[in-house]
Backbone:
């Protein structure tokens, strides 16, 4: 479904634990984020500057434009696996006041007409539509935000993770009353500063959601131990993962541990033993376990 | 309940849209061209979306009334279903909807008048060809059933057609906002030869009570044992509350039906006995329209999708069997177990009013 399960840095025992990848267009947009989240630069610096906190939060500075944003997303994905993605940046707007923070619900790419629909997370943040343009917008014809990256970001990120874990947040920097011509780049950190709590809550939300998602799909430690002990074909490896998950789902983890400690003459014999153990198994300790079976 | 409201431009000015947007004025309201831009897109994750579902208001295009599958409680020749809503505000872990859609958002088709026109056309004789009928799944039961004739059949023979609501949603759960029954009950009241069956687990019966009973509308409510309800039915009204609602309906003269489903294979017949005692201490079994029992079953591809969503869920980690494209949970002695449960049920009801939605053979196991 998404590429996380194939990522080279994915541990055999499961998925990323609530990792969030941030993407910004410019270094000035990264400044406050680096400070708030204690990010340090990932070395060596390559095509795109990247930062991380060592606890699952990473950031890429993509540069300007939809294509650069998409390339930056792919690049960071190659270095740090994110279970969720967030694009943050400044944007113009047809009517919203400078400094307004908007959680984007609808992205339209002007060049292609393609639309994207980031999820509404129910955080009660002000929301709005956004148009991704290829040249800086000075007309502000529509009652929407204007940026140059979000459509490229969203298209690229949704090839890596489910779109239900991708958000876009924009802070309004210019509008018809305060056109772009009068905007100074040095204002960016203070615009971000005024939206600190919203950004923090969005990052926390994605971290929690991403962690839950990773947890649902995680495999027990016994799976990794078995991979080390026996040789499995690709198909059998997938089947082994399913069997191990069934043990944990049924509350039979301790029984799996016992089976792992035994010695079987082949991977096939082990799989047969696991299957035999699961035949007719019912959940252990569930709410209906006080109902005698059959 | 919802994280946002999306609405199609085409229904922006529809009175139902306007009323719902007013009702949810504090939520983000987002305009789209077609609901399919947001609903059921590739790589969407039902389980994640179920944490923050949105409501999508849309216009239903294309066929609005479809043939009900053979043996779905009524004579198939005159049975149809229609879905004014896709997905449900409740979250039953066994629900097939989570395997059917990639999206957990609720889509409400606000053009009830077009559904009514389509029903009218069906009634007036442009009957749907029977070969169009395809197996459908109620939220609880696979519907190619062992069928015992019921009073319903007699009713349906007298009537021209039967129309089911509640395949792709719960018929009444969203009633305060949708006004679905409020619209359709009077509509059916004026067409006494058409029968409407509302499938539900909801206690939102205010609209029905306000209108007063009509002989050609049946409220069919589903129940599982207390333990199963506590474990698998998230957000669903408690059994007691459902029974209280049914009792009020029965006292008001409405025709009510009982669906004991989906039965899980580790359900102890004693737990069913307890449930039956409770149910029939509250309801007058003489006035029940019909009663059925159904096992947990799901189309195999929906089951596979559901398992991918909930690999950590005990319900789906049990042994399964797949037969004719339908996956169910294995029971070592299913027929005897079911008969025990039916015997307990027949202490309360006339077997003539009963049908079983069951599937007793095994041809593939996993
Ligand atoms: S009430 Fe019915 S439709 Fe709704 S979630 Fe439960 S089983 Fe599904």
Residues:
């Amino acid at each position: 479904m998404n590429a996380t399960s194939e990522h080279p840095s994915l541990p055999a025992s499961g998925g990323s634990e609530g990792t969030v990848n941030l993407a910004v267009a410019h270094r000035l947009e990264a400044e406050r984020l680096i400070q708030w989240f204690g990010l340090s630069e990932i070395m060596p610096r390559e095509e795109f500057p990247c930062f991380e906190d060592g606890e699952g939060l990473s950031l890429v500075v993509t540069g300007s434009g939809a294509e650069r944003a998409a390339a930056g997303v792919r690049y960071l994905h190659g270095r740090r696996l994110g279970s969720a993605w967030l694009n943050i940046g400044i944007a113009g707007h047809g009517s919203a006041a400078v400094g307004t923070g908007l959680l984007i619900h609808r992205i339209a790419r002007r060049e292609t007409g393609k639309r994207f629909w980031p999820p509404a997370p129910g955080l009660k943040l002000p929301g709005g539509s956004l148009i991704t343009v290829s040249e800086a917008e000075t007309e502000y014809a529509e009652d929407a935000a204007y940026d140059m990256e979000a459509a490229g970001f969203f298209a690229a990120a949704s090839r890596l993770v489910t779109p239900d874990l991708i958000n876009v947040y924009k802070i309004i920097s210019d509008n018809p009353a305060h056109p772009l011509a009068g905007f100074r780049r040095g204002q960016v950190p203070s615009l971000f500063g005024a939206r600190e709590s919203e950004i923090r809550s969005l990052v926390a939300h994605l971290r929690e959601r991403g962690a839950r998602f990773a947890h649902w799909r995680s495999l027990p430690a016994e799976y990794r131990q078995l991979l080390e002990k026996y040789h499995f074909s690709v198909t059998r490896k997938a089947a082994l993962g399913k069997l191990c998950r069934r043990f944990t789902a049924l509350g039979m983890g301790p029984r799996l541990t016992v089976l792992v400690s035994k010695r079987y003459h082949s991977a096939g014999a082990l799989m047969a033993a696991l299957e035999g153990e699961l035949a007719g198994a019912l959940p252990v300790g569930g709410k209906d376990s006080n109902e005698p079976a059959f | 309940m919802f994280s946002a409201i999306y609405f199609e431009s085409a229904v922006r000015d529809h009175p139902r849209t306007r009323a719902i947007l007013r009702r949810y004025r504090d939520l983000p309201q987002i305009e789209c061209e077609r609901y399919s831009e947001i609903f059921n897109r590739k790589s969407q994750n039902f389980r994640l979306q179920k944490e923050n579902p949105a409501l999508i208001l849309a216009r239903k295009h294309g066929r609005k009334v479809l043939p009900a599958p053979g043996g779905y409680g009524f004579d198939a020749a005159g049975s149809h279903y229609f879905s004014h809503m896709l997905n449900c505000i409740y979250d039953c872990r066994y629900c097939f909807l989570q395997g059917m859609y990639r999206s957990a958002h609720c889509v409400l088709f606000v053009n009830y008048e077009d559904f009514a026109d389509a029903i009218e056309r069906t009634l007036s004789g442009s009957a749907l060809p029977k070969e169009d009928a395809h197996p459908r799944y109620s939220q609880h039961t696979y519907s190619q059933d062992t069928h015992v004739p019921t009073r319903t059949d007699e009713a349906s023979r007298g009537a021209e057609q039967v129309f089911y609501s509640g395949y792709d949603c719960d018929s009444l759960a969203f009633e305060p906002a949708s006004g679905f029954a409020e619209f359709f009950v009077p509509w059916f009241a004026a067409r006494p030869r058409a029968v409407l069956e509302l499938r539900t687990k909801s206690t939102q019966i205010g609209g029905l009570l306000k209108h007063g009973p009509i002989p050609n509308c049946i409220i069919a409510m589903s129940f599982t044992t207390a333990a199963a309800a506590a474990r698998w039915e998230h957000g669903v009204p408690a059994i007691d509350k459902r029974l209280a609602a049914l009792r009020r309906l029965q006292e008001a003269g409405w025709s009510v039906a009982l669906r004991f489903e989906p039965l899980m294979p580790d359900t102890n017949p004693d737990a069913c006995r307890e449930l039956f005692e409770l149910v029939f201490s509250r309801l007058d079994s003489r006035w029940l329209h019909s009663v059925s029992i159904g096992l947990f079953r799901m189309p195999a591809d929906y089951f596979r999708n559901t398992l991918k969503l909930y690999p950590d869920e005990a319900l789906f980690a049990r042994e399964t069997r797949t037969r004719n494209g339908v996956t169910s949970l294995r029971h070592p002695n299913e027929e005897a177990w079911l008969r025990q449960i039916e015997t307990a049920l027949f202490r309360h009801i006339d077997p003539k009013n009963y049908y079983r939605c069951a599937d007793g053979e095994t041809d593939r196991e996993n």
About this structure: The CA atoms of residues 336 and 342 of chain B lie 10 Å apart. Chain B has 14 helices and 18 strands. Confidence is low (pLDDT under 50) at residues 127-158, 360-366 of chain B.
